[in-house]
Amino acid sequence: MQAAYETYGGELFGFAFKALDDRQLAEEVVQETFVRAWRSPRGFDPRQGSLRTWLFAIARNGVVDAIRRRKAREGPGHSSWDAVSESSLMFDPVDRLLDRIQLGEALQRLSPQHREAVVEVYFGGRTCAELGEELGVPASTMRSRLYYGVRSLRLVLEENGWLAP
Predict the structure, then answer these.
(1) How many Å apart are CA 131 and CA 56, to the nearest integer?
(2) pTM of the predicted protein model
């Protein structure tokens, strides 16, 4: 746990602080994240994702719990929270961060050629023809790599429960 804390503690704190905008609460979330991880080490399955992804998922749950506790503590009639719905409380950026982490890990499981095609075309905005010309392969080969890369990526995401089948 000490090594995991040294490696990911700062990053998890930044994540929690950005979602909560409260230093003390963010520190509590990070502490609780590592306590939960320590108490339930069997919850980590390296076949489903990295230690980093697992810790971020625990931290996300901690952030959600902290926001709910804060709302309950402040009670009805507290103007700063009454007008704010739970869906708008930084969950979208938190979810997007987790999605990026999961996507990055899934991309690492693709072959280098498939990963390059998916990243360059879908995320880089390039065409298969442009990429094929740069790499010296026919555009049809790049389209094939892209097709099988996206197909493999979908399977990896579904296999890990990160995407509904």
Answers:
(1) 34
(2) 0.51
